[in-house]
Amino acid sequence: MARKVDAVTELRRGAFELALLAYLNKEANFGGAIIDGLEEATAGGFTITEGALYPALGRLEKKGYLKPEMRKEIEGRKARKYYSLTSEGEERLRELKDAWIPLVEGINTLFGDDNNE
Amino acid sequence: MNEIEIYLKKVRKGMRFVSGKNKRSFCGELGAQFEHRGTLPQENPVTLGKAMRQVYGIGMFYRIFLIVTAFPLGVLSTPMIEAWFPGVPVNFFLLLALIWVFLAAYYGGRWSGLFTGFSAAVPRIIALILFTFGLDFINKFFDSFEVSEGDIGLVLITSILLPIVGFFAGGRIRRPD
């Protein structure tokens, strides 16, 4: 069942899909590296745990936005599941980005007014 | 058993009823991650397993089990069954069928909810047809058995609602965090 969540959680949840798609659009990666990479790429803006990442990856994969690929890069170690964007994922990313940019610009303008006071 | 094996065992516990293929795939992914980072995930393993169960849903075997067992519940929830077995708690079985449909919708998604609802509704609809259009035939075995129009309407509405509830509930409540 859906839990009662506060506005900050909702905000992060909404932006998370966009951040994940944007990150994976730059480079295909696997679970652990996505956690570190996303945190680094967003300058600490997105610190996520496995509990948030894996269900999100699973959902995006089920929706057809992500394509998993098993790669064994180091001999003697387990194969890793790399995620990359499908053409539907790229389309979804464009759609989210188009909605996101004017929203952020608008909110930043509001903050700008506050900062000038 | 090392720490990652203990952790994965608890993840599998959280993923109870998920298909073996999905469990193996996810635990393999976590195992590979452990090799990469050298640390266990921060998340509680059972919670993580349950979150993944929300994504994958329960396995096909359990979905089929819910669909198949909904059929006898549908039979027992039909008011006309009192013609054969007086005193059957039909409302109790109707409630049970509804719970079954919700369980299928919650753990298996909207299609499981829909098919479980259909499975429970089919015997009710068959009974409805028999007791409306085939009442003469039925009364060859029973002395002037009657079904009120109210009962017929109630059976019809509840039967139609079962798959509809399953389908829409599946879409609404399967929202992972």
Brief summary:
With about 120 residues, chain A is mainly α. Chain A has a single domain, classed as Winged helix-like DNA-binding domain superfamily/Winged helix DNA-binding domain (Arc Repressor Mutant, subunit A, Orthogonal Bundle).
Description:
The complex is a heterodimer of chains A (117) and B (177). Chain A is mainly alpha-helical and 117 residues long. Chain A has 4 helices and 3 strands; from the N terminus they run αβααββα. Chain A has a 3-stranded antiparallel beta sheet. In chain A, α1 packs across α4 (87-116). The N and C termini of chain A lie far apart (43 Å). Chain B has 8 helices and no strands. Chain B has helices at residues 3-14, 20-37, 45-56, 60-76, 90-108, 110-133, 135-138, 149-173. In chain B, α1 packs across α3 (45-56), α4 runs parallel beside α6 and α5 (90-108) packs parallel to α8 (149-173). The longest helix of chain B has 25 residues, at 149-173. The two termini of chain B are 31 Å apart. Classes of the chains: A mainly alpha (117), B mainly alpha (177). At the A-B interface, α2 and α3 of A face α2 and α3 of B.
List the helices and strands and how they pair.
The complex is a heterodimer of chains A (117) and B (177).
Chain A: H1 7-26, E1 29-30, H2 31-41, H3 50-62, E2 66-71, E3 80-85, H4 87-116
Antiparallel strand pairs in A: 1-3, 2-3
Helix pairs in contact in A: 1-2, 1-4
Chain B: H1 3-14, H2 20-37, H3 45-56, H4 60-76, H5 90-108, H6 110-133, H7 135-138, H8 149-173
Helix pairs in contact in B: 1-2, 1-3, 4-5, 4-6, 5-6, 5-8, 6-8
Shape of chain B from CA axes? rod-shaped
Low-confidence stretches of chain A: none
Approximately what portion of the residues of chain A adopt beta-strand conformation? 5-15%
Q: State the distance separating the first and last CA atoms of chain A.
A: 43 Å
Q: Major sheet of chain A: size, sense and barrel closure? A: 3 strands, antiparallel
**What does the largest sheet of chain B look like?**
none
Number of domains of chain A: 1
Query: How does the helix and strand content of chain A classify structurally?
Result: mainly alpha
Q: Would you tell me the structural class of the helices and strands of chain B?
A: mainly alpha
Q: Give the name of the CATH architecture of chain A.
A: Orthogonal Bundle
